[in-house]
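**User:** You know discrete backbone vocabularies at least as well as I do. Would you mind producing a protein record, from residues through to fold? Write it directly below this note and I will take it from there.

**Assistant:**
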Amino acid sequence: MRTAVVVLFLAVSAFAQDQSAITDAEAACGAKTVNFNADQDATHHPTPQPDSGKALIYVIEDLGQCEGCAPSSNAFFTSVDQALTKVGMDGAWQGANRGSSYIFFVANPGEHHLCVNWQSRLEERSHAFAMANFTAEAGKIYYFRERVFPGHQGDYSFDLDAVNSDEGKYLVAVSAFSVSHPKK
């Protein structure tokens, strides 16, 4: 009996630690109650420079490549080609991407934590997150690529990677600018 109580206590403690780690990681995002409207603007293609004393951050949603997806099958792309993903930094939403698009925002020098979260009415999709951290330097430009990957039996996973400036500039050039606003 005593062994069962110890095992139960350890299991509950492990679950609480996992929940605590998840909560800590999701702190990079914004409030769960905030949702966005977002549209692609292919006619407006801003390419700003960092503000004095700040860094410039690009987050590009790249749906252009899918390892293992058969060229003759577009079922995956049909289901995610207009995926709306919220982009957060340090606990505040910065905006959203819809489909292959990008947003940008400024950051103060120092360590930052990024988050992308699929905004969807479908519960299994709204639980898809990816995170990254970086240390910003004033005057620098940082590029991050978010990708959605198909999983087994209809589930998905996210990936959020820093990419080099050459890749980042290319991804921005071939993507639409995302214009997003919080829903009222």
